[in-house]
Fold this sequence. Notes:
By secondary structure, the chain is α+β, with helices and mostly antiparallel strands. It has helices at about 120-130, 135-150, 155-170, 175-195, 200-210, 215-230, 235-245; strands spanning about 25-35, 45-50, 55-60, 65-70, 75-80, 85-95, 100-105.
Amino acid sequence: MRPIHLLAFAVASLWLVAAASAQTGRVTGTIKDADGRAIKGAVIRATNDTVNASMTSTTDDKGRFTMIGLRTGQWALMVEAPGYLPLRGPATVTTGNSAMLALALQRDPGPMPGALAKSIGDDVKEAEALHKAGRYDDALSAYQEIQSKNARLTSVHLMLGTIYREKAEQEKNAAARQALLGRAIAAYSEMLKADENNARARIELGVTQIAAGDATAAAKTFQDVIEANPRTPAADEAAARLQEIRK
């Protein structure tokens, strides 16, 4: 797996400053290529381990995106677009002066599948809508189709794992439930192969291992989060879950 590259920003580091109320912020920005050309349909996913929240946005034909209602605090951004190397970095949302975030993606030199019939961002929005509506099988099919078109969108594994686990929670047949939890564990494991330091994927993996009845594996998973992310909200969450296992 090719490593994720963090490229040029309009500021020295990935630092978001959003004008908002004391609780939420508004972040706007642009996604362009190394030559300054706007990238349409890039997917920007923001996650916050402290409040266990995430938000997704996609760029328009001018490469612009907007996220409204982000809680103030520490966030992680993942930017992905077909034909470009993913970009990942930390983000701090604070109240005060507003700022435009400008990100640049490097084109992926490797072979890519043919042009998509429509924007990958549109596909993601449709899949998310199916998930929110509780149409798990349709959502799984939609995310699997996205993955088949562009395997480099590694965040799809995180969504697949979540849907499999939620579907398992509603399954009354014990064998079928375990099978779904196994698929969720496999999806989170694939996410970690692509991004071994993804704390959210590890925490979700641990939660799923508990649901599957493997407290020993879950304890190790949470311990890995603590060791890899000391003095972070993710480590605090993992420690709390680990304490619950040991009670």
